Amino acid sequence: MKRTLGFLSAGLMLAASAQAAHLSLIVTGMFDGPLTGGVPKVVELFAVEDIPDLGKWAIGAANNGGGTDGAETILSGSASAGDFLYVVDGGFDTFAAYFGFTPDLIFDGSFDTGGGAAAINGDDAIEVFFDNDMDGDFATSVVGDVFGDINVDGTGQPWDHLDGWAYRNDFTSATDPDNDPTTPSPFVLSDWSFSGVDANDGKTENTGANAFPIGSFTPIPEPAAAGLALVSLAAVAARGRRG
Questions:
Q1: In the 8-state DSSP scheme, what is residue 222?
Q2: What is the pTM of this model?
Q3: How far apart are CA 202 and CA 199, in angstroms?
Q4: Of 170, 86, 180, nearest to 142 (Cα)?
Q5: What distance in Å separates the CA atoms of residue 111 and residue 105, rounded to the nearest whole number?
């Protein structure tokens, strides 16, 4: 019984923990398209909680291991918890033709017109920026989630997905292990699955083997839901004591 109560106590502590503001928007997918010009290129994001003002968020690509390029594509509008957002290069029509739908939250991340946050290949890293002082100036922003290593060219690295994709595993998220919002969440390779290099060569739509699992991420349950589950477990434990 002590082991059960210990598990419940640890679970309640976990359920009570709040999501840090700079980790409310995370990267869940990366796609390097097989069409001419390597399009569509896609960064998929996920809103862990309600985000009333997406203008406090921006995305930046760190190309070829050259380190941060800062915030490149600033988002806009709002998102609800559970929403997927897409920053794309190659045009919205190309995205819709390849994936078969047009999302509500889609942003131009092309190099020429959208800042370049999605002008990436499978060997580039991505940073998610949060305007922590909320002054509209990302010069003093903090980095929340990161995909890849901004100081390493991903060619030949385990996270390389040239002409393929990378996708976040269910029930994982960005973390703040040092409890310091000025440092990014570490990139954890085991939190991701990969298609492999050249996995989508020759495709003209997102079907068949090695299709990008777009919009399929399942997050860690909300604290309230986790709390209800733990209460149920506590009731079971109590009945066990009475028996």
A1: P
A2: 0.84
A3: 9
A4: 180
A5: 19
